[in-house]
Amino acid sequence: MSDQIQEQVKEAQRNILAHLASYEMAMAELYAAFAECIPEHRMAWEKMAEEERGHARMVSGLDAFLARGFLFHNIGRFDVGTMDDHVRAMEQFRKASLMDGIDISKAGKIALEAEASILEGGFYQVVESDSREFQIMAKHLSDSTTKHVDRLREMLSSAGPNRSPPCE
């Protein structure tokens, strides 16, 4: 592969990684809003928000693999437009939650949909690299996302309807 083509591939991959990191940060901000709006579940939402911030940092850190000469395989199947649509939707949910309040059932369903879209998209399972470090990081991110889904399901099954007032 020529140097110019390899640089174009790396730039396209950096762009996808940046969008995925934005997705993870949008989830963190959404969960932080839910923590503010649903005080009886504040600690659970804050913990997941912090974990999502960690995911965003890890995804952003994948750029280092590109700088070291590794490329990702199968990364091109991810549509950045779809990721951007999800980020915008999460931002709208975040703003609406802060303005109008939200109940645990609706918040949990929104969060489950966001987490499930990462799992269904299969980013952390499908994307491959020759780097062993990447494989370890991808498994951690996939496992963490699965744990979020499990925690959200548990939270939903144990919570009754409880609409919060608008958040300040």
Structure characteristics:
Ferritin, 2 strands, mainly alpha, about 170 residues, two-stranded antiparallel ribbon, elongated
Structural features, described:
- There is one protein chain.
- With 168 residues, this protein is mostly helical.
- It has a single domain, classed as Ferritin, CATH 1.20.1260.
- It is 77% helix and 2% strand.
- It is built from seven helices and two strands, in the order H-H-H-E-H-H-H-E-H.
- The protein has a two-stranded antiparallel sheet with strand order 1-2.
- Helix 1 (3-37) runs parallel beside helix 4.
- The longest helix has 35 residues, at 3-37.
- The radius of gyration is 17 Å and the shape is elongated.
- The protein starts with a helix and ends in a 10-residue tail after the last helix.
- 32% of the residues are buried.
- The model has no long low-confidence stretch (mean pLDDT 86).
Summary of the model, kept short:
The protein is mainly α and 168 residues long.
Describe how the helices and strands are arranged.
Elements: H1 3-37, H2 42-61, H3 63-67, E1 72-73, H4 80-100, H5 104-121, H6 123-126, E2 128-129, H7 132-158
Antiparallel strand pairs: 1-2
